[in-house]
Records
---
Amino acid sequence: MGELRKDPILGRWVIISTERSKRPDSFVKEKEKTEDDKDKCPFCEGREKMTPPEIYSLRVPNTKPDEPGWRVRVVPNKFPALNTETELEKRGYGVHDMMTSFGTHEVIIETPDHDRDIKDQTIDEISDVIRVLQYRVEELQKDERFRYILIFKNKGKEAGASIRHPHYQIIGLPITPKRVREELHGAEVYFKLKERCIFCDLIEQEKSWGERIIYENDGFISFCPYASRFPFEVWILPKDHSIDF
Amino acid sequence: MGELRKDPILGRWVIISTERSKRPDSFVKEKEKTEDDKDKCPFCEGREKMTPPEIYSLRVPNTKPDEPGWRVRVVPNKFPALNTETELEKRGYGVHDMMTSFGTHEVIIETPDHDRDIKDQTIDEISDVIRVLQYRVEELQKDERFRYILIFKNKGKEAGASIRHPHYQIIGLPITPKRVREELHGAEVYFKLKERCIFCDLIEQEKSWGERIIYENDGFISFCPYASRFPFEVWILPKDHSIDF
């Protein structure tokens, strides 16, 4: 079933997943991967039985779960990195620390249509997806065993997407990732030093320079960060000082 | 010329390099890249003028620099991430911290023969390469502006190697990378807690389990770490408790 293991030097937790090695394209070189096959896509309308039973969906009244008629559909990942059937248990193992692979790994299918990418979706359709993401995060937050909930989307083979049909993923973790702890710590150190929020200061700085801003409206600002790690890195920040969305 | 920029939240330095964007394969998708062309390889014997002038070489007596007759050859990277022609200077920039792109980026060409990969090289040839790496590190250590010297080798296009001819790279940095600081810190915390070296403890643990050891001789041990981040991750540690090689 896999487990979480702690790096004894860096203090970073790593997911050791036996399930995910069963994915059909593991260890296959890019050029040898089969092309995404629309005729067999498990996320398309009419193939609901190909995924695990759905957790949630937005659908036409009087249609049943795991049948056609949905607009947005949430299902468990078929090859989960973590799962909620495991009890959360922490153990020492020699000099090491480990934890059972408790957690959740959900897939949010944005649309029944294989080719309806975000650029083709209407504002209403995109709003539906965002509301479902928000709902799932709120549901998962009720379980105190989760320390961190991550939403992500891989788009394109280069980004690791094994299925082209538009979808997000949500992972609920029993630990706070090292990178997140570091961000919280960095913001706290800055606040102790300056008595100001670092994100608010960064927004002000970018607005005064005006060089790296991509888009701005009443609620949000997006820009390329000063110390980008890779080309085209973009941040989207809420302009109001608030701790969550 | 590029510069180093500090991430204001994580404290991580990022190299912003204008030179490297000039590399011929930047932003070209894998399948569009031209195949490595042996007839034009700048690292092959006889094409010494295609690289910047050599820094060092092991060669047949009475042959001249930048001419054939070498066994191992050290040249500056033609598209350096950092360079020593820049003065090391630190500046504030609004809320940010930056540093000029002082540093070094060298290429160690292991063999004059394009196809003579490490698996084909003799022990003597490999020893030559390692001695040259060691020599360059010792030379660079004499410059107090360097805080960290990194040796690495990209092999294969998947790993980012743009030239197939066997070569190492050395980067000398004016900062200690965040990851390295964290390793030093982690080892220190462990020592303060246990009054023992974490690396020595990890070697003992792996030897007692015997599950993850790949190879061991009098001087070294190699194993897959308990909390591997990716499949086939391998560590090679000296069995003697020593701070460097």
---
Amino acid sequence: MPIDDVSALRSQRSALQFFFDFSSPYSYIASEWIEAVAARHGRHVQWQAMLLGVTFQAAELKPPVAYPLKREYVLRDFERSAHFAGLPYRQPEKFPIPTQNAARVFWWLNDSVDGARAVAWARAGLRAYFTRGVPLNDAAALRELASEQGLDADAAEAAWSDERWKQRLKQANEEALARGVFGAPFFIVDGEPFWGNDRQAQIERWLASGPFTRL
Amino acid sequence: MPIDDVSALRSQRSALQFFFDFSSPYSYIASEWIEAVAARHGRHVQWQAMLLGVTFQAAELKPPVAYPLKREYVLRDFERSAHFAGLPYRQPEKFPIPTQNAARVFWWLNDSVDGARAVAWARAGLRAYFTRGVPLNDAAALRELASEQGLDADAAEAAWSDERWKQRLKQANEEALARGVFGAPFFIVDGEPFWGNDRQAQIERWLASGPFTRL
């Protein structure tokens, strides 16, 4: 099938919404399979950078490492689940971290440069933090990552300091809340919400054969 | 292979620990596959009835339906995840409910009658609550369920009122906490903890080929 026909086919189906936070280990894992899963079923992915801090507050939740007992478990499960998916993982020493600057760079790239560059930035940021411990909350480290990714570091810093991209991220957080997002990764497929890296199999079945529940 | 040889082989490997609460939808789903998964890999399952209220308190957690946003999601996901696993599901009107009486009957059967009867009781209780809405916290309903399961209803009620089985359940809760259990279903395989119905695939891989992580 010619490329144009494939694109036309894809555009007829709704995009798969993928909400993530740069400080979420399970978002990192999902970021490595979501494009392949969507492509197998002729779907586009709309990546949505957001801040878990905002959704946690609305849902009266805390990061999983903030709870006794659960903390020890998830620190083990982050790495195990990454290895289960065939991915490298190194638990960052400082975790979780504030990720608004990385997220603003994402929205700047997405809205005014190129969607593909935004996705590449998201994947690079998640990999940098969860495999090399690059502190995305540190301005110098974020500038260096931008340069590594072929971006102008000054332009990236200007973007994350710009009121326009601060507002754009705020809007993204509000949209996430309005759609019921309370954690990450969070997926919406044809209006159906799926929470967690461990919903991959359900998403695959939904994409392959539609709803499997009466709801 | 003669039955005795299979039993001998099984006993050489450690049992798979399966912690559940009678009021946990994901425990219900897991209760339907855990025996088949263990059997495929020559393992026994040690069923462990416990009270989520105790582990939630220790981990500073609440039931998932007690959080804004998350509540709406999980009420959808309970049923969807059951259907994904090929199981019937009907959300009980009263949810969650206190399940100490059902759990004490489990320990009475397990310790002084027969492990297989205890497992049958656990499966029957989970199915009754999550497919027929039988309120396990109601004495009359629990007596009726006991009768349906071929138990003496008076003996069952005597068991759940008996200080001995109250203490046995308390001990089970304390053991669960000591092993890091903070939710249900919770599995321990060769010392490795797995939380959630959605860890089935990881448990299968662990049983088939051992650790897949450096931890």
